Amino acid sequence: MAVLKLTAFQTFQNSESCVLHHDHFIYSCPVCREELRVNGRSFQCINNHSYDIAKEGYVNLLLANQKRSQEPGDNKKMISHRRQFFASGLYESLSDAINKIVQASLASHEGKYSFNLLDSGCGEGYFLHRLNAFLQDDKRPYSLYGIDISKFAVKAASKRDKSVKWAVASSFDLPILPGSVDFVLNMMAPFSTEEFARVLRGNGRVLVVTPAPEHLFSLRQHIYENPQKHEMPKQALPGFKLLTSQRVKFTRELQNEDIINLFVMTPYSWNASPTTREKVMSLEKLSIEVDFVLTLFQRAF
């Protein structure tokens, strides 16, 4: 496997752990906002706030007062089903479209620093992992970061790809240094526009991936009595200018196992009645439309 070209981040793997060897990261302390650097098996700031590096290689930067529940975000069952669903390759077309947009931004990057990308709401890491593989042959230096509020998601992501930097964190209070990011990827996850503007460099970009009207409508017809189609996302983001907008739409035929994985991995399963759950999970096949809008913005100030 090719090695990520950045000398700022290196990994060493053995049968038990992933050890980090360097202290150049874009993390900031969630308590005092000072820069975090690696100190042995932990990240530490100048005020001695310390955060242990898990054996899988990720760091938990989510403070207790930032949690609204004991285990916020997607649970272990949702992550397991999401990983199985993505492994089927049904969303590769969406991933490929995202990769090309990022590659074009990397190609136009002229800063003296390496190209830092942050996936805010990275889930179990499928899209960032495929992006990393896609960029492996690129000659320009880059570094990939993924954060999610779900510890189960970040743990799964860290097991998948050791050359990406993973952290448990809130997208509304990013433990990221100001002006340290060139590109933010956000896929169907809550976010703070102000936080994106804070962590981005002067000409930094944000790619927002949002469900379009037809997305999973056939599945929703089996869940709701009168399902409503999604509205088209707004082509505006305060403090940012619109660069491009692209709609990615395709149809996939799902068999029972994929239907179950898709249903359980989405919020649709959270409040569904037992009768509805049984009906959906017993479907033998289902044709679904995957429908997204990929909107690229650039920081305007």
**Major beta sheet, specifics?**
8 strands, mixed
In percent terms, what proportion of residues is strand? 25-35%
Contiguous low-pLDDT stretches (5 residues minimum) are 1-23
Helix and strand string, N-terminal first?
A: EEEEEEHHEHEHEEHEHEHHE
CATH architecture: 3-Layer(aba) Sandwich
Distance between the termini: 40 Å
> Could you name the CATH homologous superfamily?
Vaccinia Virus protein VP39
Share of residues in helices: 25-40%
Summed up, what is this model?
The protein is α/β, with parallel strands linked by helices. The chain has helices at 76-87, 92-107, 126-135, 151-160, 193-199, 217-221, 256-265, 274-281; strands spanning 11-13, 18-20, 37-39, 42-44, 50-52, 59-60, 115-120, 142-148, 165-168, 181-187, 200-211, 240-255, 285-299.
Write the layout of secondary structure elements.
Blueprint: E1 11-13, E2 18-20, E3 37-39, E4 42-44, E5 50-52, E6 59-60, H1 76-87, H2 92-107, E7 115-120, H3 126-135, E8 142-148, H4 151-160, E9 165-168, E10 181-187, H5 193-199, E11 200-211, H6 217-221, E12 240-255, H7 256-265, H8 274-281, E13 285-299
Parallel strand pairs: 6-9, 7-8, 7-10, 8-9, 10-11
Antiparallel strand pairs: 1-2, 3-4, 4-5, 11-13, 12-13
Helix pairs in contact: 1-7, 2-3
Fold and architecture overview:
- With 301 residues, the chain is α/β, with parallel strands linked by helices.
- It has one domain (68-299): Rossmann fold (3-Layer(aba) Sandwich), CATH 3.40.50.
- Helices cover 26% and strands 28% of the residues.
- It has helices at residues 76-87, 92-107, 126-135, 151-160, 193-199, 217-221, 256-265, 274-281, and strands spanning 11-13, 18-20, 37-39, 42-44, 50-52, 59-60, 115-120, 142-148, 165-168, 181-187, 200-211, 240-255, 285-299.
- The strands form three sheets. The chain has an eight-stranded mixed sheet with strand order 6-9-8-7-10-11-13-12. A three-stranded antiparallel sheet has the order 3-4-5, with no helix packed on it.
- Helix 1 (76-87) crosses helix 7 (256-265) and helix 2 packs across helix 3.
- The longest helix has 16 residues, at 92-107.
- The protein is globular, with a radius of gyration of 19 Å.
- The termini are far apart.
- Mean pLDDT is 89; it is low at 1-23.
